[in-house]
Design goal:
Blueprint lengths: L13 H21 L2 E2 L5 E3 H8 L4 H6 L1 E4 L5 E4 L4 H10 L9 E10 L11 E10 L4 H18 L5 E6 L3 H17 L6 H9 L10 H8 L4 H4 L2 H16 L5 E2 L11 E8 L8 E7 L3 H4 L7 E7 H10 L12 E5 L5 H13 L4 E3 L6 H11 L3 E5 L1 H5 L2 E6 L5 E5 L3 H7 L1
Helix pairs in contact: 1-5, 5-10
The structure holds one RNA strand of 77 nucleotides.
Length: about 425
RNA sequence: GUGAAUGUAGCUCAGCUGGCUAGAGCACCAGAUUGUGGCUCUGGGGGUCGUGGGUUCGAGUCCCAUCAUUCACCCCA
């Protein structure tokens, strides 16, 4: 226990962390181009915030939250997602008073008490974007396009954008009724989990993977046929926007999302290489959420992307990620007596902006060169011997093995110019 | 929360129906080469066999529990 990270958590070691840094950089640049500013909400919130926003009947709230009572008797929950926090911050800081929409992004750990699997952790990282205060469909198109551009820049292939509209509370209620009637007539053909879904959330039956259920739902009434004129118009314009920028997507009438706050647009970016987990990114519009959290009626749209899964996909697609954590120069001491001079020279190089490292074992020159080789350094600088008496050091090119003697006071400028 | 498989060195794994001091490859360290890396050769260090209990003369091997990982379900990122 003492030497094991808690279940569903893991350490990201330097080699892998470099990949994360690269992905995070690309993400930040995309957000900059699209005009989204970073928000860093707290990692925990009052439990009620998630109960209200995510929804009491969702799996997240029912069984996945890390909730505890703090020393002041407050019920606190580690955030299972960050849309709720973003909306809370929007209200707390009166961001509705400024120009709309307010466009924010966040990146960081989320916590859900789930059973861990590949691509699913109890502490996982999400990048997400929220545009709050605009109901224009072009904003929906913007966030989807942002995801697509990001994936393109990272080199991800074979991703599918699935798109649907689940309407507003009014038309969804009508559809729900129609679907319930249809499903009730064919109860005998449904699997047993779907029978329980009928009670809790009939829309979920639509994305059941059981063959019998799929056959049944293929002929079921479709949400899109029940959209009210406003929702239908919104969905149509969104698709026109996507066409206008050449964004590819697939309509999936069965796409239903697990959080209560979604309205109109819902979408997912999926990839089949993640086993049972296919979603890399999920999002949609949440026009009722701000009001639900105690604010004025305010529309919003956004998505969250699973960074752990994104990294897995990059890895599996064999996409190499540029990493730069190598010293340019390795400083070797000819003998142990030269060690302090080597350390002084090392520091001079670093202060001059040259990434440099040395051996800390008092090892033989041979062992130091071995270490230099392994470090990936371009050059090794050797300190000591006759050269030292002349105020010089030896530069060894680690690729060719070529060595030259240079005066120590010219070392920095020589290294910088070559 | 449900079902199944797996757990032996830093990594990948071998270890037959229980039987000597638990092995290999890679990695690591040293030497061959006392002022020079990558290749080669020689040698070396490193394991409470996930953990705890039980059966047995004897357990890495069998049984139970527990923890962890993986796969599927549920759900999602």
């Amino acid at each position: 226990m003492l030497t094991t990270a808690p279940r569903g958590t893991r350490d990201i070691l330097p080699e892998e962390a470099a990949k994360w840094q690269y992905v995070e950089e690309v993400i930040r640049d995309c957000c900059r181009l699209y005009g989204y500013g970073e928000i860093r909400p707290p990692l925990f919130e009052h439990t009620e915030l998630f109960q209200r926003s995510v929804g009491e009947a969702t799996d997240i709230v029912e069984k996945e939250m890390y909730t505890f009572i703090d020393r002041g008797g407050r019920s606190i929950t580690l955030r299972p997602e960050a849309t709720a926090s973003t909306v809370r911050a929007y209200l707390e800081h009166n961001l509705h008073a400024g120009p709309q929409p307010v466009k924010l992004y966040y990146m960081g750990p989320m916590f859900r008490y789930d059973r861990p699997q590949a691509g699913r952790y109890r502490q996982f990282s999400q990048f997400g974007v929220e545009a709050i205060g605009a109901q224009d469909p072009s904003v929906d198109a913007e966030v989807i396009t942002l995801v697509l551009d990001l994936c393109t820049r990272l080199g991800l292939k074979d991703l599918v954008v699935e798109l649907n509209s689940i309407g507003c509370p009014k038309c969804r209620q009508e559809y729900r009724q129609a679907l319930l009637e249809y499903l009730s007539e064919h109860k005998n053909k449904l699997c047993k989990t779907c029978l329980s879904r009928i009670e809790r959330n009939p829309l979920r039956v639509l994305d059941c993977k059981e063959e019998g259920c799929r056959a049944l739902t293929a002929a079921a009434p479709q949400m899109l046929e029940y959209l009210c004129s406003e929702c239908a118009e919104h969905f149509k314009t969104l698709q026109q926007c996507l066409h206008a920028v050449g964004a590819k997507y697939e309509l999936n009438p069965a796409l239903v999302r697990g959080l209560d706050y979604y309205t109109k647009t819902v979408f997912e970016v999926t990839w089949s290489g993640l086993g049972a987990q296919t979603a890399i990114c999920g999002g949609g519009r949440y026009d009722g959420l701000v009001q639900e959290c105690g604010g004025p009626p305010t529309p919003g749209v956004g998505f969250a992307m699973g960074l752990d899964r994104l990294l897995i996909a990059l890895e599996q697609m064999g996409i190499s990620i540029p990493t730069v954590n190598k010293p340019t120069v390795y400083v070797a001491a000819l003998t142990n007596a030269d060690n302090k001079d080597a350390f002084a020279l090392l520091t001079i190089l670093r202060r001059a902006g040259i990434a440099a490292d040395k051996d800390y074992r008092q090892a033989s020159l041979r062992a130091q060169l071995k270490a230099a080789n392994r470090s990936g350094a371009k050059w090794t600088v050797i300190v000591g011997g006759e050269e030292k008496k002349r105020g010089a050091v030896v530069i060894r090119d680690m690729e060719t093995g070529e060595q030259t003697e240079v005066p120590q006071d010219q070392l920095v400028s020589i290294l910088k110019s070559s």
